[in-house]
């Protein structure tokens, strides 16, 4: 939910931060007003320190029990 801070002129990014109990966790980086470059730089540094693209493989390879999924009509 970054649109409220972006509306005030504070740039922000929501980035993947890993897993907790096999569930994805995100981190929000918020910068000073109009400091978009700082937020992009911080996001890029965090991604280099903690790559997250392997998380998609965990989700893709997890079996689904379709009987537990309820569909609303």
Biggest β-sheet: strands ordered side by side in the sheet = 1-2
Beta-strand segment tally: 2
Mean pLDDT: 81
Approximate helicity band: 25-40%
Overall structural class, as computed from helix and strand content, comes to: alpha+beta
If helices are DSSP runs of H or I spanning 4 or more residues, what is the number of helices?
Answer: 3
Uncertain regions spanning at least 5 consecutive residues: none
Protein name: Amidase family protein
Organism: Fictibacillus terranigra
Q: Quick summary of this structure?
A:
It is built from 3 helices and 2 strands; from the N terminus they run αββαα. By secondary structure, it is of the alpha+beta class. The mean pLDDT is 81.
What does this structure look like?
- This is Amidase family protein.
- InterPro entries: AS_sf.
- The protein has 73 residues and is an alpha+beta fold.
- It has helices at residues 3-7, 36-49, 54-61; strands at 12-20, 23-30.
- Helices cover 37% and strands 23% of the residues.
- A hairpin with a 2-residue loop joins β1 and β2.
- The longest helix is centred in the middle third of the chain and has 14 residues, at 36-49.
- It is elongated.
- It has one domain.
- The mean pLDDT is 81.
- It has a two-stranded antiparallel ribbon with strand order 1-2.
- The protein contains 3 helices and 2 strands.
What keywords describe this structure?
3 helices; Amidase family protein; 73 residues; two-stranded antiparallel ribbon; alpha+beta; elongated
How is this fold's topology laid out?
Blueprint: H1 3-7, E1 12-20, E2 23-30, H2 36-49, H3 54-61
Antiparallel strand pairs: 1-2
């Amino acid at each position: 939910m970054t649109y409220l801070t972006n509306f005030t002129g504070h740039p922000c990014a929501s980035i993947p931060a890993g897993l907790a109990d096999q569930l994805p966790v995100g981190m929000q980086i918020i910068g000073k007003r109009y400091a978009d470059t700082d937020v992009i730089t911080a996001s890029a540094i965090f991604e280099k320190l903690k790559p997250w693209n392997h998380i998609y493989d965990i989700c893709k390879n997890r079996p689904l029990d379709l009987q537990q999924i309820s569909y609303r009509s």
